[in-house]
Amino acid sequence: xxxxxxxxxxxxxxxxxxxxxxxxxxxxxxxxxxxxxxxxxxxxxxxxxxxxxxxxxxxxxxxxxxxxxxxxxxxxxxxxxxxxxxxxxxxxxxxxxxxxxxxxxxxxxxxxxxxxxxxxxxxxxxxxxxxxxxxxxxxxxxxxxx
Length: 146
Description:
Elements: E1 6-10, E2 13-16, E3 22-31, E4 33-34, E5 39-44, H1 57-69, E6 78-79, E7 89-93, H2 98-103, E8 108-109, H3 118-123, H4 131-145
Parallel strand pairs: 4-8
Antiparallel strand pairs: 1-3, 2-3, 3-5, 5-7, 6-7
């Protein structure tokens, strides 16, 4: 994560996994903007050494406890995309309830810039005039003319 594009929610602390091993966490971070679903990055100080920590309920419970201490008031997270997990990184996927907490720390929801549904778009006169439909219409006319 680039320091210019992330928000640090929490600095260093220590948790224990379900085997009783101490795990040092360097920071919990999120990107400063996104489209509604937030991935939460838990940076570990040391390698997981092959342990599957993103699925360790005891460890994740302690991370959630820390986030609750910081003011998050919502349901627990699940693990993020398995392809994002790393030897020194646990990626959790936050539920929508986390968005308000994240916004209070500077996160911007890019999805709010777009109409939520067709009714809203129709009210604004945007149905059928999106750039992609306009381009598609122009392309279809071009093929018919050929």
